[in-house]
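Page header: ASSEMBLY MODEL / two components / 473 residues total.
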Amino acid sequence: MYAQAQPSAMPDPSAGVHHEITHGPSFAMLRVDLVPGQTVVAEAGSMVARNSHVDMDVRMNAGRSPGLWAKLKAFLVALIRKVIGGETFFVNHFTAPSPGSVWVAPTLSGQITHRRLAGETLVLSTGAYLASVGDVDMRMRFGGLKSLLAKEGAFFLELSGHGDLWFTSYGGIHAVDVNGSYVVDNGHLVGYEGNLSFNIRGAGGGLMGLFASGEGLVCEFQGQGRIYIQSRNLSALAGWLTPLMPG
Amino acid sequence: MPQIDIGYRPAHSLARVVLEPGESIVAESGAMVGMSPNVQMQTQAQGGLFGGLKRMFGGESFFRNTFTAQGGPGEVLLAQALCGDMVSLPMNPQGFFIQSAAYVASTPDVQIETKAGGFKGFFSGAGIFILQATSQHPGQVLVGAFGGIQELHCNDSLVIDTGHLVAWDATLQYSIGKSGSGWIASWLSGEGLVCHFRGQGRIWIQSRNATEYGQTVGALLPPRAG
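Prediction written out in full:
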């Protein structure tokens, strides 16, 4: 049985926000306990529940201090994405005049991972961002033509600053600390630290490997840093279901 | 009263209902996984034709099945279609409200009524229909979730996304409305419809939204033929 946690009266910015992840690893849900002055930013549509006095305000995901052009661009992209589907570029801001809680959950089955950002940059794949608290800056990054080719979302979300970040995975989440290089199937990529760089290429074995191995395209990372991988792949689920659909 | 044990929680829960001789359990059509040979199944549209139609309108099945152990004790195994947890709620005089898709089974004394005034989401497309479970006698109602089940205590007021509702104490007042300050903001926020609760009572929520999940996976599939 669940008793609502009482958040401490004074926010300590170094301690991070009070939160709990339950129902993992298959159906993880996040509860964040807000104190006055804190704001939870969460992916549009992810709210499960909130105390009634917690205010919800929809915002465009254009970064903290965007210029007019960046705002306009973000708005257009956001509107197009909202209409054609896919990840929205809108986020909800939750604030509370007195202590209160917000519960959020992702759409797919899977886990939620918490990470405290301390000045570093983390890049997340489409749909992996769930929520954040604190001085976290978000920027939409176009992955370039190579990521269009890789079909797993042409956009990445670049997060930097100081604060708490929660991201989600389809299936379990597996961290790999890279020193040198590492290869990840692009459908399983959740995120990576900003000091890593990657190239998209075939998994190997030439043309035969590209079309017959079932591995498709992979991301080859270079550098030193952490990669987050999810144990399931949404495209693989869709690929498995498609032939079962009545024709 | 039959004993209900739930195994394989939380992802693939299966309820085992142990029936004394002559005892029954009423279950949603299609929920039966297995049963003892002396358990007899009777299919009926409870509440007659009108009751059945009302249920269909509420997104449930027309028929419900009654399982009765005859000539000795027996058992019935019950499951829901989607992955997720189940919980058996002991009836109390106030009763419960249940989101219609969450209903799995109930003991025969429990009255399950489809509430009029189901609300179809204009923006979200996610409709919500509500059942009311009441009983003058001890009984149980078995509800299932998509994902994990979390019991929340409403001490004053809570706002819950309608897609995450499972059941709540009938002591609570509820109203369904938009999530944000205006319709545009509600649409952009992606939250669709929410349920505003007031008062004291328990609310059971599910950690995943089945409609949202279906839409996400469905968008990746080829268009339905014809």
